[in-house]
């Protein structure tokens, strides 16, 4: 299996606190990799470091066999797209205006806009089902519609690697499935390499080709969801007692939480 992105002994710190501590990780080309773990385990920091939005104290991130530190910003932005948590834009901005921002890495003073840019924007809007919303103001959209527009903006970058940080955060159940089905379809039909951060372990197991468990800034285990969705391992990583059964619809492992075992939340009798 060919690695599209490789993280080699990466450490990222905020002041004296190491949010990512000596992480080594491979992201297979053309697959969906999901980062999962408890709050504060370093998932978002690791994802942002892959896009070089956080500087590495040590270690490196490779795109194929190229160290991303050697790439110019627009070069990297043409290879890796990132949708951060809870992105924001002016409410009076139109949908098409936001999606067009995804073409920034392809712009230059000599060629500010091209037919290829227009095609990329149209393809992104139609692919995410927001073309009919092109003239709507962002403030008039529902949460699910707005998230599709943000994903369209990332798709308009036409990057091979797409990083999405909690893309279903704050969405209801129907829109969560709708959004992740869209991401899965883009992976299958267009061969995009996708890296997702998800809090919901069952959604992670359902959509991931490769699942990565993180805790306290380190990778605990990485592999097939069927291997990682094991009661003892989930207990060690997430601090819960659970049962793992097979989802009768999707034939994927499903976690049923029973009680919290983390000492941080222990309640005296």
What does this structure look like?
The structure is a single chain. This protein is α/β, with parallel strands linked by helices. It has two domains: 1-79 and 160-229, P-loop containing nucleotide triphosphate hydrolases (Rossmann fold, 3-Layer(aba) Sandwich), CATH 3.40.50; 90-158, no CATH class. Helices cover 31% and strands 29% of the residues. It has nine helices and twelve strands. It has helices at 43-50, 73-77, 95-100, 115-127, 143-156, 173-190, 201-207, 225-228, 231-238; strands spanning 3-14, 17-28, 32-36, 58-63, 66-67, 80-83, 161-165, 193-197, 210-215, 218-223, 240-246, 253-260. It has a six-stranded mixed beta sheet with strand order 6-7-8-3-9-10, sandwiched between helices. The chain has a four-stranded antiparallel beta sheet with strand order 2-1-4-5, with helices on one face. β11 and β12 (253-260) form a beta hairpin. The mean pLDDT is 91.
How is the secondary structure organized here?
Elements: E1 3-14, E2 17-28, E3 32-36, H1 43-50, E4 58-63, E5 66-67, H2 73-77, E6 80-83, H3 95-100, H4 115-127, H5 143-156, E7 161-165, H6 173-190, E8 193-197, H7 201-207, E9 210-215, E10 218-223, H8 225-228, H9 231-238, E11 240-246, E12 253-260
Parallel strand pairs: 3-8, 3-9, 6-7, 7-8
Antiparallel strand pairs: 1-2, 1-4, 4-5, 9-10, 11-12
Membrane topology: Peripheral membrane protein
GO molecular function: ATP binding; ATP hydrolysis activity
Keywords: ATP-binding, Cell membrane, Ion transport, Iron, Iron transport, Membrane, Nucleotide-binding, Transport
